[in-house]
Amino acid sequence: MPSPEKTAKKAKPKPKRSLKQPVNRDTVIPRHHDTNRDTMTPRYHDAIIEAVRKAVKGFGKEAATYRFTVDEKKAIADIIYTYSGQRVKTNGNEITRIALNFIISDYEENGENSVLHKVIKALNS
Questions:
Q1: Domain range for residue 99?
Q2: CA-only gyration radius of the chain, Å
Q3: What DSSP letter does each residue of 38-58 carry, written as one string?
């Protein structure tokens, strides 16, 4: 008959965590993260978009020549390519007119707080 010492099971020690095992400490974004932000666009923003859309929708009859950098031309080409992949037609003239009309609308609406005014001041300081 086996002795009681042999029949009693010894408690298995818990395996020790090796220092080499990575510890998962990923940052978890809370479920309600960023829910306090207003997700609606301001009314003036919608008004500018509509004003720019109307202006660009009209046919531009006046010819103009402007000089762009290589990076500016590449950026416009990249935008055109992105939209063509989505089967949306656009061109450099349309993109330039959107930008121009947006800057003008922003300047008329915001004056000294507009992007145009701030950049012109920075260029001349």
A1: 41-54+67-125
A2: 32
A3: --SPPHHHHHHHHHHHHHHHS
